[in-house]
Amino acid sequence: MAYSDKVIDHYNNPRNVGSMDKNSADVGTGLVGAPECGDVMKLQIKVNPETNVIEDAKFKTFGCGSAIASSSLATEWVKGKTIDEALTIKNTEIVKELSLPPVKIHCSVLAEDAIRAAIGDWKKKQTAEKPVAAEAK
Amino acid sequence: MSTDVKTPQVQTQPSQVDAKGIKLPIYMDNHATTPMDPRVLEEMLPYFMEKFGNAASRNHSFGWTAEEGVETARERIAKLVGATTKEIIFTSGATESDNLAIKGVAEMYREKGNHIITAVTEHKAVLDTCKRLEKYGYRVTYLPVQKDGLIDLDDLKRAMDDKTVLVTIMAANNEIGVLQPIAEIGKLCHERGVVFHTDATQAVGKVPIDVIKQNIDLASISGHKMYGPKGVGALYVRRKNPRVQISAIIDGGGHERGMRSGTLNVPGIVGLGKACAIASEDMPQESCKLAGLRNRLRDRIMGKLDEVYINGSMEHRLPGNLNISFAYVEGESLLMGINDIAVSSGSACTSATLEPSYVLKALGAGDDLAHSSIRFGIGRFNTEAEVDYVADRVIETVERLRELSPLYEMAKEGINLKDVKWAAE
Prior knowledge:
The structure holds two protein chains of two kinds. In chain A, 43% of the residues lie in helices and 20% in strands. By secondary structure, chain A is an alpha+beta fold. Chain A has a three-stranded antiparallel sheet. In chain A, helix 2 (65-78) packs across helix 5. The longest helix of chain A is centred in the C-terminal third of the chain and has 25 residues, at 105-129. The N and C termini of chain A lie far apart (46 Å). In chain B, the strands form four sheets. In chain B, strands 4-10-9-8-7-5-6 form a seven-stranded mixed sheet, sandwiched between helices. A four-stranded antiparallel sheet of chain B has the order 11-12-15-14. Chain B has a two-stranded antiparallel ribbon with strand order 1-2. Chain B folds into two domains: 42-278, Type I PLP-dependent aspartate aminotransferase-like (Major domain) (Aspartate Aminotransferase, domain 2, 3-Layer(aba) Sandwich); 283-415, Aspartate Aminotransferase, domain 1, CATH 3.90.1150.10. In chain B, helix 7 links the parallel strand 7 and strand 8 (195-199). Chain B has helices spanning 38-44, 46-49, 61-81, 94-108, 124-135, 153-159, 182-191, 266-304, 331-337, 358-362, 367-371, 384-403, 406-412, and strands at residues 16-17, 23-24, 26-27, 88-91, 115-119, 139-143, 164-168, 195-199, 218-222, 233-237, 308-310, 321-326, 341-342, 344-345, 373-377. The termini of chain B are far apart. By secondary structure, chain B is an alpha/beta fold. The radius of gyration of chain B is 23 Å and the shape is globular. Chain B contains 13 helices and 15 strands.
């Protein structure tokens, strides 16, 4: 299987590898996939609570080259976007950017899921911290 | 017409050579296939353009010369496995030999019974053939294997009944290199009048195979797994104690004692014969050398990395095989990182069907370790320098990928990954 140059680049020079403090109020953590499936992605975002802009993103991935590239690309793309803008990122765009073959499309789907999961986690934290009357979850 | 025939030179492929004199890329996937031994090629060449006759042409010297080449090869193969020449039939490869053995016995002995026993770790050439027979109404028992990859002889005993006509168990596994207790299996079969076939593709030429001592009735042999050509193989069919008969699966002229019709692939057969002759001579020292290299690879890797697991028994194993799982690192990403080395992985990502290796699953290791496995197949032409290079590249890639791995991070934090509730995709 030939990898696209971009996948190889992300694999050799992954962007934003690392971890943030998942207990921090402005960090959202998405953990998707399962070891038995051969794909696990952890994607974290640091959001400015006033502007809702994702100021930083980090990832770690257990998975093939396409999975690593998809999640690395995802961190690149979410940085500088607002939460709402980040939610519009589609897996098909990742497939196009990385020239993923059909058998690797699921890696891009997982990356999109990781973005949403991180955002979802951050949002949950924001509602939990509001000192207003308790909302039904 | 030109009478000037040039003998083609054997050319090595141009490749990079690094500082230690190692030629890259390194080939360490000798269970998938092997490079041809130059001595084999040399033996084959005359049979393409000079001794090109059809071995079945009885009436002229072109045929007789070709036939001579075939019969010499037949003797060499028979000698390697302890058989007589009348017991060796040529095929297009071990896949065909497996098909012929299993379907041939099933059909020939169908009055006696319709039960076949095999194991879950067999090659697809055996498993898929058995599945096809199930469609025709045969009953197949797929024996499980223990954690070390070996079948339990008691399981085999219990599975055999009065309708069992065939047991087919491979001598050496292509993924984990594990050697099954062939002699004991054969003995059980003979005691019960059941035919015993073994897919000996990975074993012949690497470990001693003796059809008499190991009570084998049928054995599949492959050329390209033993530094011989692709597209040719053989099937050993026992003629005495007991005499085993098989129905042909290819009709058309009755070649090979009626068991396999079709013009013989003379150059291929000559090559297979030479490969067997070389193995007969070199096997003892070669297997010792390969085991040494394999152990060196294993020790170097395990000396530097933790949470590394060998799949399958180390004691009953092909000398050149090493199959290791590197926890928290996925197989395909590891292969990408060592892209100047040719090996293979049990990871789903490397298979066309996205299914992880069924052989590793059968060992009970768990899908995550199957996804993290690499198979090394050290062969005749690998060197110590190559082994050291491979070990070091594997170590550095695993370390790098563990830095990238959320699973490694979680494990280091003391989280038991088995307790985690993973999100569905």
